[in-house]
Amino acid sequence: MNYKDLCLYAITDRTFLKGKALEDAVREAIEGGATIIQLREKQLKGLELKELALSIKSVCNEYNVPFIINDDVMLAKEIDADGVHVGISDMSVKEARNILGQDKIVAATIHTIHNTKQIIFFIS
User: Taken in order 10, 100, 102, 57, is the CA torsion positive or negative?
Assistant: First the structure.
């Protein structure tokens, strides 16, 4: 995967869809130019989140677009997502990388220069 090709990062939030299926919204986002999809459905957990993740992963696979999971490193590993996004209070980038391996995307929330330095130190 050429990370330079990831130029339009779409993040899901079903609360804005007004009854529309998330799968349809993801298709529209990809057809509109999204080059990576992050599943971020904070209100879902467990089996419901896993089932939705598998469904969205399938849509992304149809278009050969990378699919990442928000916050849940173990779910990303379980369903073989392309990666994960971790927040400040979630697992560290280093821990996520150790669990997912070198071939997966590990994105992180960065709010301060200190956060950036931590990430850069890990990468270098």
Answer: negative
